[in-house]
Amino acid sequence: MTQVPAFAVISGAQVHEAVAGREEQVTRMVEAAYRLHGEGLTVNPDSYFLRFPDRPSDRIIALPASVKGDVGVHGIKWISSFPGNVANGIPRASAVLILNDAETGYPFACLESSIISAARTAASAALAAATLADRRGDRPRRVGFVGTGLIARYIHTYLAGNGFAFDELAVHDLSAEHAEGFKGYLERTEKGPVTVHDSAESLIRASDLIVFATVAGEPHVHDPAWFAHNPLVLHVSLRDLSPEIILASCNVVDDVEHCMKANTSPHLAEQKVGNRDFVAGTLYDVLTGATTPPADRPVVFSPFGLGVLDLAVARYVYDEVSASGALITVPGFFHELKRYG
User: Fold this and answer.
1) How do residues 226-243 score in pLDDT, each as one tens digit?
2) Which of 7, 113, 198, 218 is in the most buried spot, having the most CB atoms within 10 Å?
3) pTM (two decimals)
């Protein structure tokens, strides 16, 4: 007889314990999820944006998804972005994720998901950086971070966890306080010198690997000449670069249909030229050798962020917490289980 699963709640502390120090392992999970997605073994509908007319900078996003293979789960991430939180001393983003049983559809876990989201985002960026750089034949030694929040910190951690070592590090943020704070973090973890740049231009020109992790709602970097040295760009925040820069670069995305929405920089480029010919391929294409990034053009990776990645990491966290004996279930969560009472 089919049983209704117990419902568990997994805290952020438990999530952190499950993933901290396992950056390479989490990256391999994300790579496996990308491969399942590329092989058609996932369902990843459009993200849904809840916006507020009186608070245009705020939003809450729903990312439903399903993954087959070893993950074998359905679910949804519900993540908010309220940039004003930072000034009030709390993180910008907060999130929960629900896992649903693949056979019965019953939800069986609710996980704190801001850490899962940051980890899968950073793992995706590190995977892209390693794959694209290795295909080009040389790993960058000078890195620059535009935007210095939690995501930037996680990306740096995951780059280091995937074997990147840097001779020079650069930082730029609209907030001098945040830039100095991130510089202090990097100086505690890196041997190379860390420089705070007053402008995005000087950082870009001084970096071979550039990480955009901002809350920009529209392009603020416009001149393709800043990228004449053909760097590798992790365009994680998606809306930093002008269409002109996108069109002058080799573009790799995680999913073409998803990336061409919501006025991302690639979406703006598509609107400008009326086609998608500027997209060289997906990260799956690079992983499988179908697309090779050139060394003589800037290479821009623009990941929209797929819910299937969140599910892969969340399933791993659930299994780790369950195996440790620390899983906290809610007795009687499902109550009306008899058809006729």
Assistant:
1) 999 999 999 999 999 999
2) 113
3) 0.95
